[in-house]
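Mods, move this if it's the wrong board.
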Amino acid sequence: MAAFKLFHEFGKYLGEKNINLTSDTIRAALTNTAPTQATGVTLTSIAQISATYGYTAVTTTAGATVSMTWAETGAGTGIWQWGTTASDVTFTATGGAMPQFRYIVIVDTSYIINTTDCALIGYLDYGSAVDLTSSTTFTVDSGSSGFFQLTIP
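Not the wrong board. Structure tokens:
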């Protein structure tokens, strides 16, 4: 699985209680342009692929929803994970080849910044462009450790 990278502003959003990892609507956006971890703040800073052949662009009300959980790995461990029991997100090319993508950007569409834009959480880099020909699928899997962990010593 590709390594998950958190956007730097995510720490601010989480600390200020603007993002709720258990109840907010989280969506997955596809892009072929590298996100900037240090300066990525909102969805408009991401160049999403064209909304064609099975891809619905992420907006405040649309796009592939990611179901995540925020849970401790075991009572008293102090290790919290986000995403381990998540439902995998699957993209399917329909009617033609979906535009190439390399990055999956995770977006909180419940936290709106500047009245119209969504907050970025993090992204996965698959290392090279992903091609989906008609009727093929791509699954985003959070893996056994989730997208990220917080360890409290």
